[in-house]
Amino acid sequence: MKMYVFDNGYQSEDRTFMVAGSSTADVNDKNRKALWIDIPIQTFLIDHPEGCILFDTACSPHHATAWPEFINLVSPYTVTEEQTLFARLKNLGLTPNDIATVVISHLHVDHAGNLSAFKKAKIYVSDVELTTTVRNYVVGDDLDVHVPVDIEAFIAARLNWRPVMEDEKELEIAPGVTILNLGSGHSWGMLALRVDLGNSGTFLLVADALYMRENLGPPIRVPGIIHDTVGYKRTAKFLENYARKHGATILFGHDMEQFKSLRKPPEYYD
Ligand SMILES: [Zn+2]
After folding, report:
1. Which of 91, 4, 96 has its CA nearest to residue 46?
2. CA of residue 173 to ligand 1 center, whole Å
């Protein structure tokens, strides 16, 4: 089994989205400026003997025209042709139809953007995340950073969904690959993926359950984009303890410093 880390470009945004209060003014600096940072957009391909598994699907290639305007204003996405998810797969000799399984951490704009292309895959997603996204879309309720263009595309694609139910806390989907169902926190329902590799050890792909190392604190520092603060802190503590117990390395969702240090294709973890 091999694990590849894909660089799918970056978004630029105010750092307070990642760590709330990270540029808070004080008496010595009453007009402190916002910090504008670049955050990596990353996906993971697990080349497994039982079939390829993809964790997250990055941003839509139609971001500039199809995203709601406020997202292009506050979190513009920059990607080159070779950085797109499809180009990264092609580099390994793969097309979307070669992917047997997709695990979606949550359905936000920067994690589920190309999901509709994976028509032959079994799609694992939190049941709560899927039902709330579709419900809010059809009712016209708050979609946060779940975007209509992605929702419309994945409904129209008639995908092979496998919702992960609330009582399925740990779900092994292939030998050495296990979904952790984290529940609500950053979004309505979050999934992480544990990958046990023979040489490289155990990794926890946690996506936005922990954007950056800094979110772990101590004390735990919540992000600016959050649905359930209590659930977020519960999840952060759970992941920290779980990683310690299993000797796992946490791969944060958008930590540029960590991301730069990771191997990229043609290198891999095995
Ligand atoms: Zn998110």
Report:
1. 4
2. 23
Report CA(125)–ligand 1 centroid distance (Å).
Answer: 14
- What are the φ and ψ backbone dihedral angles of 93, each rounded to 5 degrees? 80, 25
What is the whole-number distance in angstroms between the Cα of residue 28 and the centre of ligand 1?
Answer: 33
Instruction: For residue 207, give both structure tokens.
Output: 């996506």
Nearest-5° angle of CA 157, CA 158, CA 164? 115
Measured CA to CA, the distance from residue 94 to residue 17 in angstroms comes to 34
Contacts of 82-91 with C-beta under 8 Å, sequence gap 24+, read 83/7, 83/8, 83/9, 84/8, 84/9, 84/58, 85/6, 85/8, 85/43, 85/57, 85/58, 85/114, 86/114, 86/117, 88/6, 88/7, 88/8, 88/43, 88/45, 88/265, 89/45, 91/265
How far does the centroid of ligand 1 lie from the alpha carbon of residue 207, in Å? 8
Sole residue written with tokens 């946690």: 206
Task: Quickly tell me which residue has 């990771």 as its tokens.
Answer: 262
Identify the H or E element spanning 179: strand 177-183
For the stretch 150-188, pLDDT in tens is: 999 999 999 999 999 999 999 999 999 999 999 999 999
CA–CA dist 265, 263 (Å, integer):
7
199-227: pLDDT as tens digits: 999 999 999 999 999 999 999 999 999 99
With H, G, I as helix, E, B as strand and everything else as coil, classify residue 16: helix
Q: 2-14+36-261 architecture in CATH?
A: 4-Layer Sandwich (3.60)
Map out the domains of the chain as residue ranges.
2-14+36-261
Judge whether 72 and 64 are in contact, CB under 8 Å. yes
Question: Beta strand 2-14 with 77-78: parallel, antiparallel or unpaired?
Answer: antiparallel
pTM, two decimals, is 0.96
212 CA to centre of ligand 1 in angstroms: 12
